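PT: before anyone asks, these are the final sequences, not the draft ones from last week. 489 residues across everything. Please model them as a single complex and drop the result in this thread when it's through.
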Amino acid sequence: MNVSLNPLVWFAALLTLSIFSFLYRDNPFYRFAEHLFVGTSMGYWIALTWHNAVKPNLWIPLVKEHNLLYIIPLILGLFYFLRFVPRLNWFVRLPIAFSLGWASGVAIPAVLQASIIKQLQGTMLTPAMFNRWDTGLWSIVILIGVICTILFFFFSAERRGIMKPIAQIGITFLMIGFGASFGYTVMARISLLIGRMQFLLRDWLGIVQ
Amino acid sequence: MRIGETLLRIDRRVIYLILGIAVIAPLIKPIGIPVNVMPETQKLFDAINQIPSNDKPLLISVDFDPAAMPELYPMLLAILRHAFAKNIRVLVLAIWAPGTGLGEMALQTVAPEYNKTYGRDYVFLGYKPGMTAVMLGMGESIRGVFPTDYYGTPLDSLEMMQPIRNYRDIAMCVSLSAGTPGYLEWISYAGARYGLKIGTGVTAVSAADAYPYVQTGQLCGLLAGLKGASEYETLVERHGYSKAFKPACQGMDSQSLAHLVMMIFIVLGNIGYFLTRRQR
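LR: through. Structure below.
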């Protein structure tokens, strides 16, 4: 056992235990740690935004390099604060419209290409997929899964006749997908617990290597 | 019926306690459950392994914050060890602001293990806000987005950066991603538009969403959560690239035991439900 002598490690360990104490029930230690986290995070983000966003992208070009073009984004940015002035709060629509227009123009073609067209290609069966029996089989499973799941959300037709078994296959695929996601979520949460335990047992108490 | 009711009324604190013991016990006394490498992990390892030494760099994007550290930080360490052992140049940046400190810490930990020199073997670009603009801008000119590195040194004065203009001069990108922006944005903006080869390591929560992109070939490999990290650590050690401590492998015994406990409780809960169903 090699207990840490670093006061910061002790502080972090006690905060971790304070947060864990909520598992028993709500208590002042938990609330102290929670409020400290919220306050510290806010201060950290304000400092981070100033040093990484505002200062290099606006303050230095405008004030130190005298690039007057930067007045335009400054004014657009300041319009956000007019939300607090009831008579002028419509000005906030201008920077929102600018951001929305730019982001949509950039994102729509990229997302269409990456998440729809390429994914559709991945669903299609090609002779190359049947070079090995297992890849061929999985390709057929994917194709059936995609079609049945899409048809499950096809609400224009009543679920009778052929649509009924198709919808049932679709929901089976959905349930398997939800199960996989839940399993991975459990794994993720346990991993976070393991991470904290490693910190407590290794960095703080020195019980494990 | 009494058994069923008892099973349904197990105090949640009892479950927390048993789960806690299941996590702590293997850390103190390891079981040594073997790590099996999944094909997606092997693909990422092979893709990085194929990058020629002292040629185009590997770009690593630190797209996570300390909350995702237990899963993604071991991946970052293992990938850095793999790259440095193979004399692959490394370019690190952060699309998430809190990732800046984590990226720098990882480089400061691993680079001395392999006697790597800053500016010649690796460069740290730091964080830049505006993820879409950053990813698209780097496709045209890395210098346009990052005129200097994280420490304020102009990129032209760094030996490694002199032949690097844009994505055409990058071997591949690995996004260690805990959410948005992350691997999906790299696929959309750098992969689809500029043809940059993308691999990823993700938190287990988002792993199920990432698999379709491996199937379509948009991702050249995938590390899923702590399990993926432990697999990569195992591969790096198996190939003789590192003998360093493997934090993800250490956690895998706890992970397996905790999953077993969870499954037992799910089964018990269901038994309790079916035993008491008639009463209700």
